[in-house]
Amino acid sequence: MNPPNRAVSPLGLRGWLWFNVAANTSGWILSAFGTLKAPIFIALGLLVAGGAWMMSRSGQKTAPIRCPFGRLPRRFRQPLPAAFAILALLAFAGGVLHPPSNYDGLSYRTPRVLHWLAEGRWHWIETGFQRLNARTAGFEWATAPILKLTGTDRCLFLLNSVSFLILPGLIFSVWRGLGVSGRVARAWMWILPTGGCFALQAGGIGNDLFGTLWPLAALHYALRARTSGRASDVVASILCAALMTAAKASNLPLLLPVAVALLPCTGILLRRPTAIVAAVLLGVFSSFLPTAVLNLRNCGDWTGLAAERALLVRGSPALYLVHSSALLTLQSLAPPVFPVASMWNRWIGNHLPASWKNRIEDRVELGSASYELRELTNEENAGLGTGPTLLILGVAAFAIAGPRPRRRNPRLLALQVAPWISLAVFLMQSGMVGCGRVAAPYYALLLPLLFSRPGAADTVRRGWFRILTGVSILLSAAILVLTPARPLWPAGRVLDALRAGHDSPTLTKAAATFEVYGRRWDHLAPLRAAIPTEEHVVGFAGWDEAETSLWRPFDQRRLIHVTAHDTAERLRSRGIRYIAVSTETGPWVLESPLDTWLKKIHGTMILSVPLKLRVSREPVDWWVVRLE
Q1: Which of 221, 253, 359, 402 allows an S-S link to 237, with CB 3.0 to 4.6 Å?
Q2: Which residue in 345, 335, 336 sits closest to 372, CA to CA?
Q3: Cα–Cα distance, 89 to 477 (Å, whole number)
């Protein structure tokens, strides 16, 4: 067994923790009083963060600050840290040069914050698209002060960039505490973040990378508290666990390994009742609990699924375990560039048993039952990736075939096994099409069970490991340059030139992909242009569409969702004279054919324009309707 974990926190972790705790706490408190205004938001956030910081430092001796990145020039002359730095710079460049294009971010994460800021408080939004209400709010509360201060979403990628930079130090600290040798931890702290689900999101506004940081941070502080004996470390671990659940509800099973790690530290808190109270209060506001309570109050289900997934039939845990495991394996092994994806999709479509597909089709998200892959990985469908996955399989094989470990410490073994139990619980509840992406917070916690074996340390020096590591890093760099969401090459001009010389279905599809992603951040601009600028309130009749476009420029216009219950009189009383309507999802939301609905509200269609919001779907006609 390795020496006790004595690692100090990675640079910036404690400040990042208190920023997110302050953002969540001040957001919920100010919402309760209906005063979600920028000056008050910032003042209360600074007060919470400052008080928490002082509390965390009380009783500690002054000591020089140490961190894994303390000697940057010398460290980043080494190959793996240098490669990680290049990937971080590529991701950062993509975030700076391109507007955010993550579909979930544009369709509900950013819009729900804009709804809250416009109302001056969190509120249950009247809509047919319940993701605006039922989803966790940890990432959103972190974006709220940025959106309010800057008036743009161009800076939101920094939440993921900061998380990406902190990730290697946390992996090293936690793995050392879980019995992984220093040689293995020092190599993998740089290799694991090269996985597609991490590297691609480092320059975007997805919340999976953001959600990956907090379970690792919770274990880091819990393991450190065992040797430091400080209540501040236990409090920090509890708050990180709270933020973990607020970032993603799919992280809830990871409370198990955090609880196992904190169990020996209960005596520390019992000696500090003030710390207990502070941890509970701040933890409540920084966790999924406020959202769960509000879901229970507004839809009768603390998970929110009663409102969000009313059309899905629930299946047995065993069914979900088999389905999600297969999907997770596929998405983890899928290469970032997969030219034969169409061949795979045809093959799996022809060979997938019809009985299995019929059994799961109405129990999982749309597209999940087909097990299809894409030609080019993007941040919405990226799993761990081929390179890191093959490296993990190789190390695991050598570790299992190598010498048997000595008798393991039962507490350490429990910590290593607990994340696997959490993963099984997650898979037994998941029917999500992006399973490989959503499972990102689990990956780093699963590997110590295998990588702590004696044989794992020998693999780091082997030639095949170094070659495969180089290939993995090159693939990550290539996808960061090529990704349609944030290309670092003149994709449009190059593809147009290639098509002029030799057109083909592959080039046509590639050109359409880059075009859709290039316009996604403002796809609904033609609708916005048809609405007079003096109209400060606009109606919206749609479902899972990138509505952020209709809010631009922020702070000048407010969007209100139109539902089947809205009459002409109610729409006018709310100040709505113009409504943007999707002809695809509008009839479903409005529970009426559009022609019938137009007569009901005495509206006139003044614009009809086809818009392609998703690569995999045909263009959809959108209307702008004016109330007479």
Answers
A1: 221
A2: 345
A3: 10
CA distance 279 to 511: 52
pLDDT reported for residue 24: 92
**Alpha-carbon distance values, 113 to 141, 429, 605 (Å):** 8, 28, 30
Provide the pLDDT for residue 136.
Answer: 94
Cβ-contact 555, 118 below 8 angstroms: no
CB atoms within 10 A of CB 109: 24
Nearest to 289 by CA among 226, 246, 341, 233: 246
Written as one letter, the residue type at 369 is A
3-state SS, residue 558: strand
433: its two tokens: 């099409």
574: helix, strand or coil: coil
Ordered DSSP codes for 426-464 = HHTT---TTHHHHTHHHHHHHTHHHHTSHHHHHHTTSHH
Q: What is the pTM of this model?
A: 0.91
Instruction: Burial-class residue 568 by CB neighbours within 10 Å (0-12, 13-18, 19+).
Output: middle
309 burial (CB, 10 Å; 0-12 / 13-18 / 19+) is middle
Number of H helices, E strands in the chain: 35, 5
> Can you tell me the distance from the alpha carbon of 362 to that of 348, in angstroms, rounded to the nearest whole number?
19
Can you list the residues of the chain whose pLDDT is less than 70?
Answer: 1-8, 38-76, 309-314
Question: Three-state DSSP class for 624?
Answer: strand
Q: How far apart are CA 67 and CA 53, in angstroms?
A: 18
**pLDDT of amino acid 59:** 42
Output the six-digit token pair for 129: 């698209």
Q: What domains are there in the chain, each with its CATH number?
A: 13-60+69-308 (no CATH), 317-457 (no CATH), 525-627 (3.40.190)
User: Beta strand 558-561 with 537-541: parallel, antiparallel or unpaired?
Assistant: parallel
Residue 591 burial (CB count, 10 A)? 11
User: Distance of CA 92 to CAs 155, 202, 203, 379, 487, Å?
Assistant: 11, 7, 5, 14, 12
> Residues 460-493: pLDDT tens digits?
888 999 999 999 999 999 999 999 989 999 988 8
